[in-house]
Design goal:
alpha/beta, Udp-n-acetylmuramoylalanyl-d-glutamate--2,6- Diaminopimelate Ligase, Chain: A, domain 1, 5-stranded mixed sheet, 10 helices, 11 strands, 22% strand, metal ion binding, DUF34/NIF3_sf, DUF34/NIF3, metal-binding
Length: 303
């Protein structure tokens, strides 16, 4: 496909056309449109930085790699595989910078991407909030029913927002449920931490991929028996336990990386389906790099 813009109203004034690879591969710009269809940037939180970080919209794309973090190891994996686009959940440049010199890790990442011709795209809180996003995938993995968002999205759509809450098909002990959570997440050094009665019965479950201890008011309002999220800080967790009713909500603290990794296969499949519907055959892969920052943990042992 040579000409994307074929609407020529005046034969004497032909506008510049976007050219793409003769094989029919989509351009980066066309992939961005597919991404916007799935995870609209309008769903991102006000503080967030999502969208294209590095890349030329007219470059053909044949390979896309999905990852949680744009670490140097992940970037090397994308470059070595020959991906023209790396899509990560976490932003590379969330805070403002005044230099991208290769003397810093972030600057080196930018240089590595540009020099290799690999684009970088961030799908962060828009990927959390959208239908089929991070928390939806967690809710599905845990087998929750009657799922609704913990907090509503700013666009007013009732099915979109940060976090999810729903019900297990049957009552389950906290210990058994925590074991299921542990088994289905990628193995990381931090494991899974649990607060609550191991034999306590639960049915209503709230989840939030990534750091979610700012959502305790919404969790309590949802009447959840247990809350699964990552990066629980000491004081919010302690206050949640002190203010609990009959010990609930119980708490399950998981790895930030692991909680969001589960979304990657679903996201890769969703993008592949949208591109296939448009007649494109793009190779899409999930990164094999574990970007969890911890290497090992020391514990006192016990059950």
């Amino acid at each position: 496909m040579e000409a994307v813009n074929t609407d020529i109203s005046d034969a004497d004034s032909v506008e510049e056309e976007e050219t793409v690879d003769a094989s029919g591969d989509p351009t980066l710009g066309q992939v961005l449109l597919a991404v916007e269809e799935l995870w609209p940037e309008s769903l991102a939180e006000d503080w967030d930085e999502v969208g294209l970080v590095v890349g030329r919209p007219n470059v053909p794309v044949t390979k896309v790699l999905f990852a949680v973090d744009p670490t140097l190891a992940v970037i090397d994996e994308a470059v070595e595989w020959g991906a023209e686009l790396l899509i990560t959940h976490h932003p590379l440049l969330l805070k403002g910078v005044n230099s991208v010199a290769a003397t810093s890790a972030k600057g080196l990442a930018v240089h590595r991407l540009i020099e290799a011709g690999t684009g970088l795209l961030t799908v962060h809180t828009n990927g959390d909030s959208a239908v089929g996003g991070v928390s939806d995938v967690l809710a599905d993995a845990f087998g929750l029913e009657n799922v609704t968002p913990l907090t509503a999205a700013s666009n007013g759509l009732p099915e979109e927002g940060i976090g999810r809450v729903g019900d297990l098909p049957d009552l389950e002990t906290l210990g058994d449920f925590a074991a299921r959570v542990f088994e289905m997440l990628p193995a990381v050094a931090g494991g899974v931490r649990v607060a609550g009665d191991k034999d306590g019965l639960i049915r209503r479950v709230a989840v939030c991929g990534g750091a979610g201890d700012s959502l305790f008011d919404a969790v309590r309002a949802s009447h959840a028996d247990v809350y699964v999220t990552a990066d629980m800080r000491h004081h919010p967790a302690s206050e949640a336990r002190e203010g609990a009713t009959n010990g609930r909500p119980y708490l399950i603290d998981v790895s930030h990386f692991a909680s969001e990794w589960l979304w990657l296969p679903a996201a890769a499949e969703a993008l592949g389906n949208v591109l296939a519907d448009q007649g494109y055959d793009v190779e899409i892969r999930v990164s094999s790099t574990n970007s969890d920052p911890w290497d090992f943990i020391l514990t006192p042992g016990g059950d």
